[in-house]
Amino acid sequence: MSTVWMNELSWVDYQARMANDKPPILLPVGALEQHGPHLPLGTDGLLSAAVAADAAARVGGLVAPTLSYGYKSQPKCGGGQHFCGTTSVDAATLIGSVRDAVREFARHGVTKLVILNGHYENQWFLIEGIDLGLRDVGPGARLEVMRLEYWDFMTPETLAHVFTDGFPGFALEHAAVLETSMMLHYPRRWCGSI
Ligand SMILES: [Zn+2]
Question: Is 104 a catalytic residue?
Answer without folding.
Answer: no
